[in-house]
Every structure is written in C-alpha cells, then in structure tokens.
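Recall the central idea of this unit: under ordinary conditions, the amino acid sequence of a chain determines the structure it adopts. In this exercise we apply that idea directly, starting from the sequence alone.
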Amino acid sequence: MLGYSDTIVTTFFATLGCLFAFVAALTTDVGNDGNAVSVGGSTLNNVISEDPEFTDVIENITVPAGRNVKLACSVKNLGSYKVAWMHFEQSAILTVHNHVITRNPRISVTHDKHDKHRTWFLHINNVQEEDKGRYMCQINTVTAKTQYGFVKVVVPPNIDDALTSSDVIVREGDNVTLRCKAKGSPEPSIKWKRDDGNRIVINKTLEVTDLETDSLELERISRLHMGAYLCIASNGVPPSVSKRIKVSVDFSPMVWIPHQLVGIPISFNITLECFIEANPTSLNYWTRENEQMITESSKYKTETIPGHPSYKATMRLTITNVQASDYGNYKCVAKNPRGDMDGNIKLYMSNPPTTQPPPTTTTLRRTTTTTVNTDGYNHTPLNGIGGEGPTNSVIVIDKLGIKYQSNLNEIGKSEQKLTGSNPKGYDWSKGKDNGSLGLLLDQGSQVTCWLLALLSLMLPNRFHE
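Accordingly, the structure predicted from this sequence is:
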C-alpha cells in the first residue's frame, strides 16, 4: 500500500507526463518529420522498432553565481519522440524539443543535428542561487524515460548589514557584544580579528589572536579594547569579505606629570610637560596659581602632541627668558564630557650651571745641592737632598690657585737629620706648609733654608770671640 508521500510523487509524475505529452503533441511537425510517410493521400507514422535510449549521463556541475552553465543530454534512436528539460525542485517544464516553455529569459535550448547521438543542451545564463537543484532530461515514450543532473550554485559570502553591528561607543567598565551575519552558499563562517593586529582581550584571563563566532562578547571593556575590529566572512568561494567595526571607549581624563619640581636659573628657557589620556579628546590648557589661563604669546608657547593610541597626548608649555615673576606653580588641565583632571608643577630658581676646566697636573723634578765652607764649620750635605738623586714633587694647578702635593721618594722611608747640632730636635723629614704663598716648598728646600739661618746666627758670635 502506497504511503501519502508516494501517492503525491506518483500523481506529480503522471500529471507532468500528461502535460509533457500534450505539449509534445502541440509542437510536433508531422509534415517535416522524417519518420512520417504518405500513403494514398493520408499520413501514417512508422513504428520504430527500437526505443530511444540515453547514451551518457548528465554531469553534475558546480558553478559560481553569475556564471553561465550548460547541461547535456544525449539520446539515440529518438525517432519521433521528444526531449524535454525540467527543473525538479520548481516542478517546471523548461523546454520541449526546440521550444522554450518557461518565461525565464536566462533559459535556452540547442541541439546538434549532425551528432550521431543527438545531444540536447540546456543553457542557463547568469546563474542565480535559485537555479540550484536537480534537472531532468525526459523522453516522452509510453513509459517516460528520465535521467537527472545536479546543479550546485556556490555564492561568495556577503555580510548582512541589517543583522551586523555598526560602530559602537561604550563607557569604560561596561560589557559589549559585537554581532556579524553573512549570507552565501555554502553558509559562511565568521572570524573576528583586530585591525591593528593586537590580540583580542576577551576578559582578564583570555586573550586570542582571532576568534571564530557570530557574536564577539567583550567583558568589562577598557581603553585597551578600543580600536577597530574586523568581521571576516568566508565559505571557500572567493572572495572573502569583511566589515570594519570601530569600538570607542569613553572615560574621563587622566594626567601624569613626569617632573613635579623643576628648577631653572633666571634668563633661561624651560619646557614643562604633562601626559594625558582621555576619550573623547579632551580640552587642554595651562594655568598659573591664580587660575588664570595661559595664552600663546612671546613669553609662553603651548602645544598638544597626539600620541598612540589615539586617546594619549602630551601637553607642553615652554617659558622663554625666565624671570623672578615666572617662578611658582603651573597647572595642566584636561577636560572632556566624562570629567576633568589637572596636575601641578612647581617651578623654582636654581643656580646657573658652572663650567670648570679639568685640573692640570704638572710634575717637577728638582735636584738641590748645598755646601757651606767656613772656618771651623764644615757641614755635610743632607742625605737625599744633596747629589744622591732627584727629589720628586707634584704641583696641581687649577683656576682657584696652586695646590701642592708632596710625593718624595726618600723622605718617608727613613728619618733625615743634620750632621751637626740640632738644638731643637727638628724633624726635617716632615716639612712645613707656607700657606701665605699658596705653595708648599719641598723637603730639600726647607732643610737648606734652616741650615743657612742657623749659620747666620752662629757666625757673628764666632767673630766676636
């Protein structure tokens, strides 16, 4: 017993066969048919001993939308029978023999009369997605003979703007969902990427380079999420398409001051800096202690330098020829619809920089020999000061004066004494510092001076006796 669906299919084919037979009868040209003969003034159709047969299968075709397609149906022993093309899914007769039945202007039919096995071609121009499905080639024999070919129409992806998110503006800390829908055949897949190449921050614990999903959900959005996102649709049929969706995050200004205390001498120029972050872009200006706004002049030059990302900027205030009245507090202010913030910089007077040449070091080598010959007094030269070798000393000269630093080789190794009377027990190895001259005499010179002084005191007494 046939089911309900089987009954419908059987009825459909019976109806379609009757319709095909009726159309074939209307389109048959008996006088020109090679299978008709005239006997005694009447026309009789010869009976074909062999039934028509298909000589080849109909190839399945995959075609991109917009292209043209041609289906071939080859038949032998056709005789007086007719060949028809039908679209199974649409239940439509397209052509019968050389005649186009459908009103679709993109459909046409041709055949090769010189082919041994006559081939009937169904042409579909500018293929659309609606043209996909099974196509039947049918011969109108008593029991209709049918074969099928499948046309698959592939359609490149196309983003549906009505179902896809556009540019969004959200406040920092909110959640946001970006949606993207696309049509095509086969059904396209959706992938998200950032336009700047950075990773997508899903939440505090998840960052990805790209994400395949129709809906991109961003939790507790921050300024780090700000930028353009690409929704990319692809289905293997070129070209892939994308849509750029800009995410703007609003937040009140924030100010960072690299140097809160800045020292500068009088008559110098100075540039003060503040770093700011704000979105939307903030209104930026400078004030003094009295809250009076600083305007551009020969004294002051103000500028705001955009940064990267776009919500960053640098504020600069240049003060030329600083005077005493310029010292004090300066404030950089940033305002936008979400709020305002300022930062304070104190400018104070500092000493001018000094430029001092490096100290010059001069090494002197001196050799001193002193011999005094008198009646009754013979003095032997001091060891280390006489002719036994040079005495080394170092003089350091700078722009403040002359400083002396001793570096004697012998004095310091052993104690040096006179070969005569030394009533005060003076230690000749230590020397003295003559500060009034700004120069320290070396040890040999001091011993010589003391020796001459003693002799000058003793000689007069000798003459007196």
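Residues 282 and 336 are 5 Å apart (CA to CA).
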